[in-house]
Every structure is written in C-alpha cells, then in structure tokens.
C-alpha cells in the first residue's frame, strides 16, 4: 500500500513564496494531527496534498488563481509556488512528486492568472544489489498524472471525494440527490462500464442488421434454388402441352365455318317476322290503354248520357252560359264584402290602440296611487326625524344657521304636510346628512388624538424597559467574566503553593541532563564509526566501477545475441506472411470476381484501395438512392399527415353540421329555418298585441257594464236606449265577451310565452345556422376536393418509393459483399507490406550489430557469473556500512534528545520562577475582582425590582388604547349607518316625485283622446252589420255555383267516354287483318333453330379462343422461363446458397458470443456494486452505533434505488436480450425502531457532519485497499461535546487497531485543542503539528512533542 511521508509547501495561499522558506510536514502512521486557529493555513495542507497527487485546484479558487500566494503581497507582478511530496509505493520504493506553479498579475485591475510550470515524478527503484536506481519523468516527456494515479492505487474519484475531500464539500453525502448520484457514479466508475456495455450493445445491434441482411440473402438464394428446380420441371411440361393444343385449334376452325353459313339464312327470315309482330303489338297496347281510360271515366260519371255525341255537345253549350252568369255575380258580391272587411280591420286596429292605451293608463293610475301614499309616509317620517334632529342639535349646541334651516322645514310640515314641496324636504335631508358627516369627523378627530397620546406614553415605557433589560444583561455578563477570572487566579495561586518542591525537582533534572550530554560528547565511538564508514564507501565505489564494466560487457553480448535471434525471426516471419497472402487471395478471389466489371482484373497489390474504390462507388449509389427514398418517404409522411389532418378537419365540420342540424330539428320540427325566422317576430308581435288588447278590452268592458248598470244609455255615444231590453242585452253581450276573454286569456298567454321561447331559440340558432350553411356550401366541398388531390399524390409517391426500395436492396447486397471483404483485403495488404519490409529490416539489423562484441574473448555465461559475485560483495559491504551508520545515528539521536530535554527543563524552570514573583499581585487582583462581582450583583437586583411596576404600566396603557380604538370604530359605524339611511330616503323621495309628475302629464293626454274612442266604436258597429248581410247573399249564390259545377263535370266525362270508344273500335278492325296475314307465314320454330345455332357457334368459338389464348400464354411462359433460368441468380443458385449459409451461421454465433459476454459483464458490475454497498452499510452501522451518543437515530445506511429488486435479480435467470439497470439513485437514510427515513432535511447540522465523516470512513475502508490514507478537515464542526468525545474515541480505536499496519495513515486537521488532546492518547503518536502565522502573516508549521 502507498504511504505519504513528507510534504513541502512553498508559495501556496498563505505560505511564504521565498525559495528557502518552504514549510515541511512529515506524516506518521497511523495518525497525523494538525491543530491551529481558523485562517492559519491548516486546510491548505490538504489542498496541497490533493493538488500534488491529482493536479486539481481546490473549489472556489477561480481555476487556481487564488491558490497561489498573491503576487501583490511580494514582488507585485509574479510569484512562484512549489509543492513536493515524498511517498513510498507498495514495493517500499521511494517516490518524489513535485509540481511547480507560477502566478502572474495581468491588466490594470491586477487580476491573477496561474500556470503549471513543471510536473516531475522521480522513482528510486530498489535493485537486487541494494542500490536504488532513479527513474525520473516530467510533464514534457510523459503523462505524469497517469503514473501518479497508478502509484496511488485508487481512482481519482476516491482521491477527490473521500481521501482528500475539501472542507467545503465534506457534507456531499447529504447534498442534493443528483449531486450525490454524480459522486457515487464517479466512485464506482459507472460511466466506463456503461460505455463498455453500450459499445457491446451497439456491436450486437450492428450485427443484428448484418444478420438480417445475411438471412435475407440466404432466404433469397434458397428461394432462387427452389424456384430454379421448379422452373426446369415446369418448362418440359409446357412444351408437351403446346403441341397437343395446336392440333385442336385447326379442328375448331372447320366447325365454325359450317355454322356461320346456316345462321345467315335463318337470320333473314327472323328479321321479317319480327317487324310484323312489333306493329301488331303496338296497336294492341294502344287498345288496352283506351279501355283503361274508358273504365276510369265511367266510374266517375254519376248520370250516364244515353243520347249520341251531337245531343251531348248541345246540352254542354247551354249549361256553360248559365254557369258563367252566376259566377260573375258571385265575384261582384265578394269584392263588396272584401272592401267592408278591410274597413272593419282598420277600425278594429284603431279601437285596439285605444283599448290598449286605456288599459295601460288604468295600470299606471293604480301605481300612481301607491306612489303618492308612499311619498306621504316618507314625508311624515322625515318630519319626525327633523324634529328629533333639531332637539339633538340644540342639546349639542350646534350652529344657528343649521338650526334656523330646520325651523323653516318644521313650520312647513306643521301647517300642512301635503303642501310641502319635495325640493324643500330634499334640502332638509341634505342638511341632515351634512350634520352627520360633521359629527362623525369631530368624533374621529377627538378619539385619534387621545390614542396618539397614549401611544407616545407606551413608546416611552417600552424604551425604559429595553434599557433596563440591556443593563441587566450587560451586568450579568460582566459578573460571569469576573467570576471566571477569580476562579482562574485561585487555581494559579493554589498551584504556586507547591511550586518550591517543583523548582527543586527541575534543578535536579537539569543537572542530570547536563551530565548525560557531557558523557555523550566525550565518547569516541562516533569518530570510529565515521572512519569505518569512509573506508567501506571507498571499497563500494571500486566494486561499483568493476560492476559497471561487467554490465557493459553483458549488455554488448546480450544485444548481439538478441540481434542474431531477430534476423532468424524476421526470415521466419517473411515466409509466414507470404503464406498468409496466398491463403487470403485464394479465399476471396471468387467474391472479388463477382464485383469486377468485364474489363477489370484482380490487382496483385493494394487490394484494399481497389476494394475501397468499389465500395465508395456502391456507397455513393446507395446514398443517392437512399436520399431519394428518404425524400419520397418524407413526402409520403407529409402527405399522410396532411391527409389525416384534412380528414380530421372534414369529420369535425361534418360533425358540427350534424350537431347544428340536430339542435335545429328540435326547434324547427321539420320546417324551414328561413320561413320560421321570418314569421316568428310577426307572430310574437301579433300575440303580444292580442294579449294587450284583450286585457284593455276586459278593463273597458267592465267599465261599460258599470256605466250601463248605473244609467241605461250607450257608454260610447251616450245615446239612451228605447227599451230596457236593449240595455240588458248589451250588458249580457259584454259579460259573455268578458267571460270568453277570461277563458281564452291563459291560452293566449301560454301561446305568447311559447312564441317568445321559440323566438329566443331561433335568435340563438341563427349564427349556428349561418355557420352550417357556410360549411356545407363552401368548406366541406373544398376539403373533399383537396382530399382527392392528396390521394392521387400519395399513390404516385408510394409507387416511386417501392421502385427505389427494390433498387436499394440490390445495391445493399453488393455493398454488404464488398464490406465483408474489407477485413481480408486489409490483412492481405498488411501482410504484403510486412513481407516486403522484412528485407530492409534484415539489412538494418545486420548493420546495427556492434563489432566490439566480436572482439570479446569471454562468453555471456562467464560475464554473468563474475557479475553476480561482484554484486554479492557490494551488497555485503553496503549492509555493513548501513549498520555502522545506524549505530552512529542512534548516538547522535541520543545526544539531540538529551539537549532537547535540558532545554524543556530550563523553560519550565523560568516560567515557574516568574509566577512566584507575581504571586502578591495576583492575590490583590483576585480581591478586586471579587468586590467588583458583588457590586454588579447588587445593581442587577435593583434593576430587576423596577421591571414589574414598569410592565404593569405598559399593560394598562395598551388596554386604554384598545378601548378607545373600539369606541372610535363603534361610533363611526353607527353614524355611517344613519347617514346611509338618510341617503336612501333621499334617493327614494326624489324617484317618487319624478314618477308622480310624469303620470300627471299622461293623465291630461288620456282625457283628450276620449271623443275619438267613442266615434271609432260607432263606425265599427255599422260596418259589422253590412258585412253580415253580404256574407249571407254570397253563401246562397256559392251553393248554387257548386251544384252546377258537379253537373258540368259529369257532362265533360260523358263526352270523353264517347270519343275514346270510337278510337278503340278503329284499332280493333286493323289488328284483325294483321293477325290473319301472320298466320299464313311459315316461321314456326325459327327462333329455336336460330338460338341453337348461335349457342353452338358460341361454344366452339369460346373453345377455340381459349385454346389460342393458352397457346400464346404457353409460348410466352416457355420463353420467359428459359430467360429466367439463364439469369445469374438461377444459374449460380447452388454456389450462392452455400456461401450465404456459411456467412449467416458465422454471424449468428458471433452475435451470441457478444450477448453472452455483455450479460456476464452487466451481471458482474451489478454484483460488484451490491457487494460494495453491503460492505459500506456494514461499516456505517458499526461506526454510527459506536460514535453517535443520541437516542433518536439507531444507525444510518445508504440506499440505492431498487435494492430489493437487485437481490431478486441475482437469484433468477438473466434475460439474454436485455441489459439490466446500471444507473442508481442514492440516498442516506436514518433508522429508528426499524423505520427508515430520509436523513436529508431531517437531521441537524451536527448529525449531518457526523454522518458525512462516517460515510467517508466506510467508503475509504471499502475501496482503498491499496491506499490506506484518509484526511479529515475540521471533523468536529457543529458537533456537541458528547459526540466530539465519541468521535475522538472511535478515531483513537481505529488508529490503535491499525497500528500494526504501518501503511494506514489518518490525517486530522482541527482547531479544537481538547479534541487533539484526546487523540494524543493513542500510543503510536509521539508528535503533532501546530500551524500558525509569523509576524509577516505567512503560515508556519511546528512539530510539537506529545
């Protein structure tokens, strides 16, 4: 294991940059302790260690700019720094690592930039003869960092995060989860393993495509081989069938010629017969139609006419003249009635307006009476309020103007409330509101001033209390400091009581040390040892020279022997390479020939370049085709995407149209929207008018009935009735009409409500309907047209894509074949070049043989034997010399130790003497401090006595402020409420006054319209009487016209029947003659004969056509099969099939091997991770239980994601096709009563520090088997006394347990002297180091004995 021995620091941070001012620290095993105040440079030692080993600057050092001593503190522009570390490697060889830096100031702001000047690594390797051979490397000739990393035996992550963890990063285990994951990933080197697994997986995936191509090629050649065999067999069968089909075709031609002649003669006869038959059938069809018409009209005739056609025509003419006269009379009466109806409608509309206005006026009159009553009530309340307000104003002594205004209002009210003008009341209300506002303002001002006064008093009281508390705190602190000084002086005085005996002991000890030093200085042993060592050194130098000569001879002979062997090996290598070239060429020659063009031959050399040229050409072709294919593929995807989007948009529009139609159907019930929308407003207005008219008419009729019951005269014209019966009849008529209107009123109101609902629905539906029409007529046809265009483009693109796909497959096979030859051609070229290079290499080796080796007369064995003898002699002399030096050094160490002991005794003696001289002064100082402490205690007691009274006054003042604040809020709210009530009364009174004035103007207008209403009613009664008389006359004449219309229709039907019967008789006579002519012709059985001949002709022609078609198809098939069998893929099918089978098998087995290795590596990585984490958690549990003294946490653990599943994975079969999880998330948990909780965010600062230290110790013991070093920088941060002692005890136990292992090194840096004293109890520790600042402010390292 590697150990660190010494460290030299110069010019780093606060260390002196002078060349001769480097500070050196030696590291011990098992523990090195460093103590010092904050800011003295302790942490810089660990930073220098880490920098020297890893080459990384500490965090927050601005890339090293703050790591070197600032040049402005020394030369001003440049400073040089040097860090040198001495180590021992695992073989006990000394290694010295040095790094030199330079810091330079730049720019006007003096910014510092650093650069590494030199890095050196010197190894002193122990030789078999005991001599150490120095091997040095610097950053100019090699990778020093790699050499240092190999020397330490641990990864850089362990060095940075565990061994040399910086104080600022010391709590990284409880940092954010992502940062903890990065740290552990670096510790486990997860990235390297993931890359390795990814590389294997990529290779496996790459082989998948190769295997796929090989399988496709194998299937392709297998299919070609099978198809070739089938095609040859089928070719022979087709040739035999062809000769038989030719004979059959000639026989069909002869039969068809005979049938053709017979069909021509029968066809002429059939055509003549069909013409006659068609003419007869047409006439029979006309007769049947006439019979049907006659039957229909006879059914409609009510009175059949028995006379002939002339009598019927005469009767029809006479009837028509009478019918026209009555029809003209009916039209005249209808025109007269229509005029009177229009006049009545006009009078009714006018009367409706009058009735509606009368009903509206009566409603408004009723409302006006209510408003007048309400206004009178408001005025009465106002009178009472003003009287109360006047009384309260007099009692409160308010202004005289306000009081006089209230007197005026009260006088008006007392005379007559109804005569009071509303404006006067409104002014009175305004005055009342102003009075309330003024009252509210004064009250608020008064209370606010009282509250502010109390708050000022409270502030003074609080200030007094604060001053007393401050004085008490300061006096208590001073009393404690005084008592501490008294206690310390008391201790020192007690110690001085026994100082006389101690001084005598120190004098005796000084005498003994002086005698020991004189005895050692008089001894002659040291001089004798120096003489003997010098003699031995001369002998060793002489032997070393002889050894060098023998080594030179051995080197010459060994080198010459090596060169001779080299020549023989080169000749053997030349023969081997010639054979490899021949073997490779024999193996790849068939495949190369397949890639060659007709005019090309296989070159004798540079096969790889030739193949690369071919491969480049195929690659370019493949790239071009692939780009075209990808381009078309993108176009297809783009078209399909656009098409899908278009379809979605079309479906959305159709769905929207359907939804709108469904909603419209619920409202329209099958009707047209335009008609419904156009009519609904008229219907609603008409229904509204009807309801209003009925309401007004009902009110008017009730008024008429009341007037008729009082006085027997017309309510409109004021004409007296002649008889009482007329009055009763009119009253009854009006009463019935009112009842009828009352019965119809609910129906009309319901109808009006339904129409309004429907109107609202249609108004809401209108924008939706317009949207639907736009979609149906414009958007949807446009989308469908565009969809058809996309379908056409998609079909064309798919066709091009398939064509390119076939081309790419062919080129890919050729390219794969060429790529498979790359390795062999490269090996061929390499072997050929190596074979040609052997000749020049033999000449070169022969010329390099040294002629001095031939001149030597001794053999290599003789030189080797003599060299061993000399080396053994040198080793013996060296051991003897080392023994003498050890004895000499031991004597010198004894002398040095005796001198140091005497100096320490003298120092203690001087200190004790000085304390005895100051004893009286210390006693007097103790008495003064005791008196001062008594005075301070008395002062504190007096101040504490004043505090209760002061706090009572503060509480009383706070209560007074609270009471006044509540009183202010209560009074303000009451006045605000009263003001709001007055404002509401004012608004209501103003509104009622305006409404009453408006009604008075309407009443005058209504009274002026009463005469026009009476005239309209009289005209309407006269018009209705005239319309009734005209309606009676029209009904009589219309009934006569209707009866004559039925007679006329009957006569017309009789006329039609007579005409159709005459036409039917004519067609019957013609058909009889035609049928007699057809019966005489000889055409019976003609159609059957003709059909038989046509059927025979069709059958034979079909047979001949199929026969001829099969002949052409068979000939084409035979020619096509012969051409296909001549193709290369069928001609060489067997050879290609065998090659592809071999290639496929090799690739599949290689892929299987890679998969097995990948899975094995993955499983090993996971097992390694699981075992290491188990080891870490064991150490964590052990150290936590041993160190932590609290009872809230039993122990801590580090949990990784899927811990449970990992244990299961290790016991089940591994899926060969998948890579298991390699990435973990880490979290630190604390366990309490078996329950795990995340430690981050729940633990205290001390628990966080302690957990981080324990985790670093556990990781170090788990991973640092080759490097037993760990540094702890300020481990007691945030720890309480109990846990500090426990940590010290554990580190002491750890050091004691490791003292037998000389390679374990624990470096502890702290400012806690008590912590250091506890650790010094470890037996192997004799010294510790103290870091401080000198008078120039530079850091100094001092070694202090235990």
What does this structure look like?
The protein is α+β, with helices and mostly antiparallel strands and 1346 residues long. 76% of the residues lie in helices and 8% in strands. The strands form 3 sheets. A 6-stranded antiparallel beta sheet has the order 2-1-4-5-6-7, with helices on one face. Strands 11-12-3-13-14 form a 5-stranded mixed beta sheet, with helices on both faces. A hairpin with a 5-residue loop joins strand 4 and strand 5. Helix 12 (673-710) runs antiparallel to helix 13.
List keywords for this structure.
1346 residues; alpha+beta; 6-stranded antiparallel β-sheet; 5-stranded mixed β-sheet; 14 strands; 8% strand
Short characterization:
The chain has helices spanning 42-54, 144-152, 156-163, 177-187, 190-300, 309-396, 400-415, 422-497, 499-522, 525-595, 607-668, 673-710, 724-820, 822-847, 852-855, 860-917, 919-1008, 1010-1079, 1086-1126, 1128-1131, 1133-1187, 1203-1209, 1245-1263, 1281-1297, 1313-1319; strands spanning 3-10, 23-26, 31-36, 78-88, 94-106, 111-126, 132-138, 1195-1200, 1226-1232, 1235-1238, 1269-1273, 1305-1310, 1327-1333, 1339-1345.
Give helix % range.
over 70%
Shape summary: flat
Gap between N and C termini:
27 Å
Secondary structure class reads alpha+beta
**What is the arithmetic mean of pLDDT?**
77
Which parts are unreliable, with pLDDT below 50 for 5 consecutive residues or more? 1203-1221
Strand order of the largest sheet: 2-1-4-5-6-7
Tally of DSSP β-strands: 14
Biggest pleated sheet: 6 strands, antiparallel
- Count of discrete alpha- or pi-helical segments spanning 4 or more residues: 25
Strand content: 5-15%
What is the alpha-carbon Rg in Å? 64 Å
